[in-house]
Amino acid sequence: MTKERLYLYDTTLRDGQQTQGVQFSTVEKQTIAQTLDELGIDYIEGGWPGANPTDSAFFDAAPKTRATMTAFGMTKRAGMSAENDDVLAAVMNAGTGAVCLVGKTHEFHVTTALGITLDENRDNIAKSISHIVKNGREALFDAEHFFDGFKSNPEYALSCLKAALDAGARWVVLCDTNGGTLPYDVYRITAEVVAAGIPGDQLGIHTHNDTENAVAGSLAAVDAGARQVQGTLNGLGERCGNANLIAIIPTLLLKEPYASTLETGICAEALKSLTMASRQLDEILNRVPTKQAAYVGASAFAHKAGLHASAILKDPTTYEHIPPEAIGNTRIIPMSNQAGLSNLRRRLAEAGLDVQRDDPALSRILAEIKDREDHGYTYDSAQASFELLARRELGLLPEFFEVKRYKVTVERRKNKYDKMASLSEAVVVVKVDGEKKLSVSESMDGHGSDRGPVNALAKALAKDLGPFQDAIDDMRLVDFKVRITQGGTEAVTRVIIDSEDGKGRRWSTVGVSPNIVDASFEALLDAINWKLLRDA
Amino acid sequence: MTKERLYLYDTTLRDGQQTQGVQFSTVEKQTIAQTLDELGIDYIEGGWPGANPTDSAFFDAAPKTRATMTAFGMTKRAGMSAENDDVLAAVMNAGTGAVCLVGKTHEFHVTTALGITLDENRDNIAKSISHIVKNGREALFDAEHFFDGFKSNPEYALSCLKAALDAGARWVVLCDTNGGTLPYDVYRITAEVVAAGIPGDQLGIHTHNDTENAVAGSLAAVDAGARQVQGTLNGLGERCGNANLIAIIPTLLLKEPYASTLETGICAEALKSLTMASRQLDEILNRVPTKQAAYVGASAFAHKAGLHASAILKDPTTYEHIPPEAIGNTRIIPMSNQAGLSNLRRRLAEAGLDVQRDDPALSRILAEIKDREDHGYTYDSAQASFELLARRELGLLPEFFEVKRYKVTVERRKNKYDKMASLSEAVVVVKVDGEKKLSVSESMDGHGSDRGPVNALAKALAKDLGPFQDAIDDMRLVDFKVRITQGGTEAVTRVIIDSEDGKGRRWSTVGVSPNIVDASFEALLDAINWKLLRDA
């Protein structure tokens, strides 16, 4: 059976930039465009040339892509020709292979927002599209508020689509601009549009996530015959965001009825870079990736429930609808209060510890974890601390050094320029190989990012560990998470530290105490001990 | 027209706790249960009694609710009677009004995971449900992997549902356990189940978000006749989470075809607390609320695009599918324009500050807030710090005292019993009424809950403020939240402190610095100044 071609249109660089707090630089736009192109997206909407300086700069230096680079704009204004509309001229001047213009199809918006007649508006659409086509570009028409417009005046909304197609548009795109249309209505109205003679292979869908249904709405339109899907990476976009291509793409490629009936520009090999593409965008935006994101989240294949975890060990298809490898993600079996022994053995194996099913150490480890979790510890993400705990119970943890005492001071007072400034100082006394070593370190305002007591302690602790110094020289603290939690009957502070080393390893450790400095120090000690285990 | 009743079933406390990194304390469970009850949820699934200690402790001290408190468990095991199954006995012993048992309906899972015959499994379902009903409780049956099971053997899957209903179950719930079923299949299969004679008003739906379609899947089942929806607050849950009730509820109450045909236990007034309920859960989990969350996100009604913003000012329905007030959310228009200023005036009025529309201080306050937010501050919840900032700009903030310097030390070493113990000591120098005052305070391990440097500082600072001493004697620090966030181009620590006084007031303040001690001190100072404003 020949598959029908479905086209993917990404608007991360344009609609995605409407997100509160998001403003891409030109270089960032170039990076994202390259990732989209390597993934196999068909159209890359790069921005609105003329509307803001970075958009224009991006088109001037747009990377050469296999994908069709597309400039966004709006249909010409009334009372002037397409040739004389300077806003449209700026869009054309970007020189892209395709141009996508948004225009109105909802009579309420034509009369209220534009204040022109319905005929004038339709004429603006037709003339604008003709102008694009005459200039040898591919033309797309984004029909703003189409679903609301169709509900209030279907004849008029349809006549606008027809006007665009008659003028030579390659695509007309049904936009649910305010995000209020539910999937069933998207399906019903798209089907009526197809039944009215608009060919599905010229019909696109553009949804927003205001009811958390943008992905479902896109699929509903595809079910009804639309063959272009518009969306953004990670669902970036104004208000609640656009349809999330990162969630739509694997559904189209891996799941029925789509996998066996439709074809996209994305191959199975490229699909494996999807998780990376999602995280790259978060990195550019300096966002913590959403753990629970569909398909690509760090928790998407994490099995916490004891019953699920033991079934997964027998056969992953018991609780996984697709294999995580297909989209470049990985399976996680975390420890928790509810985890069983099989879960524990699996986790130990991941740490390189093969423990027999009947080893009594298993239940000791489990009891120790439960007890510590009751006191505020968490081992779901702190795999390195988990490994140390297990090794201690198994008698497999050497004592590299012993901390005899430490002291940390934070002092805030006026400096010589008569401004308040802080100085943190830490002293740590350790015993290594029978020898006592005393280290001191300080950090102060305005000297890089390491200005607090925890960093002073970390620096002092790492300063002189004798024979182990080489092994820890390349490690650094990359993240530090603090929360107040319940430890037994009292509030305690839980600190999770993420560390990294020159070999590209990244590991997490946990510390808990009523005293934030002690909790941090405990997590630091675990981080160093784990590193020494690997390299000393 | 009489509306059909649709029931809402929340499993935040059970399935929600399957989220990686989530472990509720008993007190947190009680708080969440009360919020759910006030909202008007019909069923609150509190946990699996016997499976872990906090779940059992919660049922022992469960709040009295209008909602039906429900205990979760699994159908009895083969080879023993329901009466003799100790796992089931622990569930029954929780004494809840309803009991929900999960059981298998997918032949592959019966034979592979359980290793029993199909008849044995169906018999286990029937006997378990009978056991619940005989004991005078309402019985629910969660049909695990129902959709996959129905696809592979529809007769068997249906026969399990019928066995549960024949045994007296009030509800049978179709669970898409691995989250892989797309909305259209949920609709089709639910419709077939109804057509096969399972009454819609005894049929529930339980979806997961692995393809970002959990909300749409729930709505599809309702479209096909199901009249119970299971989900969690904020879509908490294993892997990618459960269906998000926070997104489903407003769609059911505010949007067609649901609003005019279905009735839930949630009234229009309670719906206004939805945003608060969502943020409360994030606060308990120490999570940053998702700005783009449907309906309740801080960006859900934020209009960044210039064209949208100006249309919104003419008529909000141009770009909003529902009014934000309906769910207790607020519209955000870029700070620079008129709407931003009227928002600010409302917030000032809440702090008792009536500022005229044309007061130039308004734009100074706005600029100051924006600048501080760029540096990591947040004033969403820290209303007391917001008030102090505004008063400073308005010239309405007296200087009660001045901090000249401070110093805090944490020392950890062996005590006289040869055990490691910590001592925190703080020295604070303030100038009050022209007089310099030097206070010192210490806190140590094992002496109440105040054992860290921040508490030592708080005690020292509050120790001697001369004429203001009376006013602050009854205040205490009740919560302390720390987060690493972005401040300009660098990572900074943000501390939010909640304080309380003898008059029952509770207020929040914020401090930001690369140094956690400095950030804490800043928030402490705000807390004390706010208290002095009220009482000095």
From TrEMBL, chains A, B:
Pathway assigned to this chain's UniProt record: Amino-acid biosynthesis; L-isoleucine biosynthesis; 2-oxobutanoate from pyruvate: step 1/3
The record, for InterPro entries, names: 2-isopropylmalate_synth_dimer, AIPM/Hcit_synth_CS, Aldolase_TIM, Citramal_synthase, LeuA/HCS_post-cat, LeuA_allosteric_dom_sf, PYR_CT
Kindly list the GO molecular function terms attached to this UniProt entry: (R)-citramalate synthase activity; 2-isopropylmalate synthase activity
The enzyme class is transferase
Q: Sorted alphabetically, which CDD domains does this protein's record hold?
A: DRE_TIM_LeuA3 (cd07941)
Tell me which Gene Ontology terms the entry assigns under biological process. isoleucine biosynthetic process; L-leucine biosynthetic process
Lineage, top-rank taxon, reads Bacteria
The catalysed reaction is: pyruvate + acetyl-CoA + H2O = (3R)-citramalate + CoA + H(+)
Which UniProt keyword terms apply here?
Acyltransferase, Amino-acid biosynthesis, Branched-chain amino acid biosynthesis, Isoleucine biosynthesis, Transferase
- What EC number is given for this enzyme? 2.3.3.21
Give start and end of each Pyruvate carboxyltransferase domain. Answer: 6-272
- NCBIfam families assigned to the protein according to its UniProt record, in alphabetical order: citramal_synth
Recorded family membership: Belongs to the alpha-IPM synthase/homocitrate synthase family.
**What protein is this chain from?**
Citramalate synthase
**UniProt source species:** Roseovarius albus
Chain's gene name: leuA_2
